[in-house]
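Researcher: Re-running this chain for the archive, since the previous output was lost when a drive failed. Same request as before.
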Amino acid sequence: MNEMPASCPVLLVEDDLLIAMDVEALLKDLGCTVVGPLTSVKAALEVIPTQPIDAALLDINLNNELVFPVADTLARLEVPFVFVTSCSRASIPWQ
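Model: Regenerated structure tokens:
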């Protein structure tokens, strides 16, 4: 497995504590600095302008709130991101 560049800041938006802890540990093992984990759209939107972010992992459903406003903001800032979800690709309405 290739390592990320040293201290690559990755935004983690995930509302499930166990999943967030596992992903955070994996990112740290890869040499990333984890921004988060954050559990809401509001928290993520507040953090984005205050932290350098090279990439993001976004859970789509955050306690019945969709993460798409965060994805839109990251897309405008040209920050690459991936959705982390159990949903099928066809069921994701974000473009």
